[in-house]
């Protein structure tokens, strides 16, 4: 026990150590990766000349040098001017559409105007480049008067224009207005391309706004070329200032094989060639780069490039030495943190593998142990919670690191920030490890896929589908039925939403048809189920010949056929059982009948032998034993004969009204001698009133005789036997006999009621084991019940008979049969 406890403590200790190792190594990986990034060694090359910083620096300086040296060509100016003009026109069109509140517009084919399909308005840009017309209010009033009515006042027209209302013109009206106001209303123009006629006017406020936009952008478009030229000139000046400011860089420009410009002393090209951190670029006359080289060593530019400008760029010797020293220091730090990163990754993998290996394992057994958290949280829900927690913790680590303050020019981090960052990173790693160990324990325990919310929601559907036995055809029918319902509902919704005179009635008609078909399908299924339920009830009630009719449904007809087959099988089984029982009864009856004749002869000759004189005492003793056994064999044969007749129902039953109290007194009187000689104490509780029952006197006497004979054979010696006669309150009279068994009753009531079964398993007592079976069969023939109960060693028999009211007695009393003696 102590060894197991020690192993358990060691196991827990190693798990804690592995967990701490994973957390610490994960934090180490983050810090090492971050520190490697801060070293400035981005592409991890050992020399400065090939580093990203150097190449980026040379490329930037070369770009500025190109702007400084090459003047913009007419072709490039034209391209940039066209690009700027297109941008300005697009912005103009968007502002005009916004001012006119056009949601959608199109440009005319010629590009001279804009057209809106919703308001049927058109705008020609050239019309708004003329001076703003005079007396706009008068012109607007006259135009509105033509559209509405000649008698419309100017005040109503102004109100309509202020509200932005427009009115469509007929062709004749538009031509009249256009002819009359050709100078003051230029917006009414015919669009021959569309054939749509003339368009309604814009309001005064819209005209002023569109005019302002068109004129402003026209001015910008006209100055686009000069704008591009000025912008290129500004870029060249900025490039020249940048080159002059970078005293740590040197360059040389060779054009046509001659040095045309340089800021280096002496042999400029040779000095730059001698520096490893250099960039050599060749350009076309237009300034397009064709060849670029970076790296150490002297480079001979091909002769094919001699006729083109060649740029030689490199840092000065002093600057290069500083850069190399700083880069080497950074690279040494980079190597240290790279090794630290590898060590942390290996440590994390070792700790993670150990945790996964020991998850759910016990050191003293192979049993997989689940923790309480494994039984509470579903795996997919736990995964979502893990992602949320990890995101929040990483955000906390980011805030703690001070990175958010980089936007304000400060990215410093103090001791508290380091502590908060470590705590957040450790928490994030712990949450991930917690979920991974839960998953591992579930996988080992089995049923990991079933312990998810997705399986609970969707897996049960698949399980029900598999258990239902449905075929893919039935599923496809359901899917198409559902799709039809969705389509019909969509048609109805479209009709209601848009008040469509076509979709609305069609949707209503289709939904009514759909509902009627659904109702018909449901009722048909319900009728089939009801028919099956009715057939099952008929078969349960004993009508094994009942056949459930087919209704044309494959699934329900299959169930009906199976139930009909079951009923047919049951009917055949019952017939076979009845036939077998009848054959056994006939066999027993025949054997019993055949045994009676020789037994009668044996008893007769034994009686004659006993009357002979001169027999010795031994012979007389033998005759007494032979006489006793012969009578026992006769009684067994009679019982067997009666049991066979009773079980087959081949017994004449003469039911009559019997006064039970008097009948019981006479029956007990007949066997009083045996009762007294049994040594048992009989306590009888017999009421003084008259109780009448329907019964056959001979059969009822045999039942009472068998019960009392069973009591006297199997009761505990010198024990008490209780006999009660009482009403049960449900229209029956019960005769209850209770006694204590002398043998242990390790048998059930049903088994004890079977034929040839005795409570004395050793079979040391006399008896055939048929008495209770015969009594039960006789009671069934008389319409009563014969019940027994076993409670430990207490044996209880209840004889239940239907009660007859006293006023139902015949006037002559001839049908009363108090007792029929055998």
Walkthrough of the structure:
Strands 9, 10, 11, 12, 13, 14 and 15 form a seven-stranded mixed β-sheet that branches. 58% of the residues lie in helices and 11% in strands. The radius of gyration is 58 Å and the shape is elongated. With 822 residues, it is an alpha+beta fold. It has helices at 2-38, 52-69, 74-99, 136-147, 154-162, 171-180, 204-222, 224-245, 268-273, 317-358, 372-376, 379-400, 415-445, 453-468, 472-498, 503-540, 554-611, 617-648, 660-670, 672-677, 697-714, 749-752, 771-781, and strands at 106-107, 113-116, 121-124, 249-255, 258-262, 279-283, 289-294, 310-315, 656-659, 681-685, 692-695, 720-727, 732-740, 785-791, 794-804. α19 crosses α21.
Number of strands: 15
What gyration radius follows from the Cα positions, in whole Å? 58 Å
Total helical segments: 23
Low-confidence stretches: 132-198, 403-411, 758-765, 808-815, 818-822
Shape: elongated
Q: What share of residues are in beta strands?
A: 5-15%
**Biggest sheet details:** 7 strands, mixed
SSE inventory with pairings:
Layout: H1 2-38, H2 52-69, H3 74-99, E1 106-107, E2 113-116, E3 121-124, H4 136-147, H5 154-162, H6 171-180, H7 204-222, H8 224-245, E4 249-255, E5 258-262, H9 268-273, E6 279-283, E7 289-294, E8 310-315, H10 317-358, H11 372-376, H12 379-400, H13 415-445, H14 453-468, H15 472-498, H16 503-540, H17 554-611, H18 617-648, E9 656-659, H19 660-670, H20 672-677, E10 681-685, E11 692-695, H21 697-714, E12 720-727, E13 732-740, H22 749-752, H23 771-781, E14 785-791, E15 794-804
Parallel strand pairs: 10-12
Antiparallel strand pairs: 1-2, 2-3, 4-5, 4-8, 6-7, 6-8, 9-11, 11-15, 12-13, 13-15, 14-15
């Amino acid at each position: 026990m102590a060894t197991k406890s020690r192993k358990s403590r060691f196991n827990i200790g190693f798990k804690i150590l592995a967990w701490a190792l994973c957390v610490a190594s994960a934090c180490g990986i983050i810090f090492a990766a971050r520190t490697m990034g801060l070293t400035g060694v981005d592409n991890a090359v050992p020399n400065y000349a090939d580093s990203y910083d150097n190449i980026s620096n040379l490329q930037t300086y070369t770009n500025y040098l190109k702007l400084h040296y090459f003047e913009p060509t007419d072709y490039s100016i034209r391209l940039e001017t066209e690009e700027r003009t297109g941008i300005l026109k697009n912005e103009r069109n968007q502002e005009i559409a916004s001012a006119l509140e056009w949601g959608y517009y199109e440009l005319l084919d010629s590009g001279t105007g804009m057209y809106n399909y919703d308001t049927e308005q058109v705008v020609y840009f050239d019309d708004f480049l003329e001076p703003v017309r005079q007396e706009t209010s008068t012109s607007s009033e006259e135009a509105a008067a033509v559209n509405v009515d000649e008698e419309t006042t100017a005040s109503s027209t102004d109100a309509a224009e202020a509200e932005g209302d427009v009115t469509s013109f007929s062709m004749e009206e538009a031509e009249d207005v256009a002819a009359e106001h050709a100078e003051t209303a230029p917006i009414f123009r015919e669009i021959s391309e569309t054939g749509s006629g003339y368009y309604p006017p814009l309001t005064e406020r819209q005209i002023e706004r569109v005019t302002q936009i068109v004129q402003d952008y026209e001015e910008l478009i006209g100055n686009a070329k000069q704008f591009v030229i000025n912008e290129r000139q500004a870029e060249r000046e900025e490039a020249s200032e940048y080159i002059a400011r970078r005293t740590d860089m040197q360059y040389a420009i060779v054009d046509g094989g001659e040095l045309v410009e340089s800021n280096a002393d002496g042999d400029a090209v040779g000095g730059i060639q001698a520096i490893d951190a250099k960039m050599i670029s060749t350009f076309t006359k237009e300034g397009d780069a064709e060849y670029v080289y970076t790296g150490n060593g002297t480079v001979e530019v091909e002769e094919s490039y001699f006729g083109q400008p060649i740029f030689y760029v490199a840092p000065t010797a002093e600057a290069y030495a500083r850069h190399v020293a700083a880069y080497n220091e950074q690279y040494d730090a980079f190597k240290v943190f790279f090794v630290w990163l590898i060590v942390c990754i290996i440590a994390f993998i070792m700790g993670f593998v150990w945790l996964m290996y020991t998850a759910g394992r016990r050191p003293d057994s192979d049993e997989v142990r689940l923790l309480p958290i494994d039984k509470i949280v579903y795996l997919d829900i736990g995964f979502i919670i893990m992602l949320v927690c990890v995101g929040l913790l990483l955000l906390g680590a980011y805030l703690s690191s001070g990175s958010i303050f980089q936007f304000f020019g400060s990215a410093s981090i103090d001791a508290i920030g380091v502590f908060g960052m470590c705590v957040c990173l450790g928490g994030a790693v712990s949450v991930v490890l917690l979920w991974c160990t839960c998953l591992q324990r579930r996988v080992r325990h089995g049923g990991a896929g079933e312990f998810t919310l997705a399986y609970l929601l969707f897996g049960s559907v698949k399980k029900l589908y598999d258990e239902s036995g449905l075929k893919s055809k039935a599923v496809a029918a359901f899917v198409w039925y559902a799709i039809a319902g969705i389509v019909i509902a969509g048609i109805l919704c479209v009709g209601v939403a848009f008040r469509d005179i076509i979709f609305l009635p069609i949707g209503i008609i289709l939904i009514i048809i759909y509902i009627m078909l659904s109702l018909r399908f449901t009722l048909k299924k319900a009728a089939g189920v009801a028919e099956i339920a009715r057939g099952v009830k008929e078969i349960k009630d004993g009508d094994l010949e009942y056949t459930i009719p087919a209704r044309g449904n494959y699934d329900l007809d299959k169930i009906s056929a199976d139930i009909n087959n079951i009923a047919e099988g049951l009917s055949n089984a019952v017939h076979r059982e009845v036939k077998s029982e009848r054959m056994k009864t006939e066999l027993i009856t025949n054997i019993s009948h055949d045994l009676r004749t020789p037994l009668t002869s044996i008893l007769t000759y034994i009686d004659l032998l006993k009357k002979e004189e001169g027999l010795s005492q031994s012979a007389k003793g033998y005759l007494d034993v032979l006489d006793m056994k012969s009578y026992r064999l006769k009684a067994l044969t009679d019982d067997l004969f009666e049991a066979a007749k009773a079980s087959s129902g081949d017994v004449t039953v003469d039911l009559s009204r019997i006064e039970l109290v008097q009948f019981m007194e006479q029956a007990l009187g007949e066997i009083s001698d045996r009762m007294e000689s049994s040594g048992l104490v009989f306590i009888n509780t017999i009421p003084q009133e008259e109780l009448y029952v329907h019964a056959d006197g001979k059969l009822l006497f045999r039942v009472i005789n068998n019960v009392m004979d069973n009591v006297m054979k199997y009761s505990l010696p010198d024990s008490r036997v209780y006999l009660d006669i009482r009403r049960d309150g449900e229209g029956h009279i019960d005769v209850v006999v209770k006694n204590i068994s002398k043998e242990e009753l390790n048998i059930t009531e049903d088994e004890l009621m079977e034929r040839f079964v005795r409570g004395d398993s050793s079979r040391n007592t006399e008896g055939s084991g048929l008495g209770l079976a015969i009594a039960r069969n006789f009671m069934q023939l008389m319409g009563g019940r014969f019940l027994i109960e076993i409670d430990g060693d207490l044996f209880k028999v209840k004889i239940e008979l239907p009660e007859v009211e006293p006023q139902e007695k015949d006037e002559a009393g001839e049908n009363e049969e108090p007792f029929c003696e055998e």
